[in-house]
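RETRY 2/3 - previous attempt timed out on the joint model. Re-submitting the same 230-residue input unchanged.
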Amino acid sequence: GAGVSQSPSNKVTEKGKDVELRCDPISGHTALYWYRQRLGQGLEFLIYFQGNSAPDKSGLPSDRFSAERTGESVSTLTIQRTQQEDSAVYLCASSLYPLPSGSYEQYFGPGTRLTVT
Amino acid sequence: DAKTTQPPSMDCAEGRAANLPCNHSTISGNEYVYWYRQIHSQGPQYIIHGLKNNETNEMASLIITEDRKSSTLILPHATLRDTAVYYCIVRVDSGGSNYKLTFGKGTLLTVNP
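RETRY 2/3 succeeded.
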């Protein structure tokens, strides 16, 4: 079946502009995650959505970052007034709802490479 | 989550087995060993996970030592497409906020023709 898709694949924007990144999770996956990966660095957790529960926003680096999810489907990550340090690959992942005895196999999209000039 | 230690890089000849080690000497009894990989310019990809028994799937085998302080990921017949950074992580499988994946530096596996 179709995997996680993200758009755009690349985005170049000027400092101070707003950007919106989109994620389409795997159908049936109720959990959705956003991560950031700076060049040569590991994953940085941003936000987690699970069903109708309040999202875990603990990883959002500042109030310029926000994310929404429509039901159990599409999610958008918005960065307002972009700064050069926001340049990174933004990765979206989805998974089935992790059961107490289950595993957390997160399936990742290809990412959106954001460059702020 | 317990800390893991992996060699920064390894080379393997195409068609041969690639054995990637991981040390996790402080692993707790309820922590699983997970392996992900990231091919250049792609998102991370789940490979395999296990608790204490050896595991095998269509991608790889995972061998966990009896004391669980280390493990080895085995790609039985490496291909050029297996060139990637391989991440070993240990994490509790339920409860809390353990859904947050955290990768270290990983091992850059280069498969040579």
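Residues 36 and 84 of chain B are 10 Å apart (CA to CA). Closing ticket.
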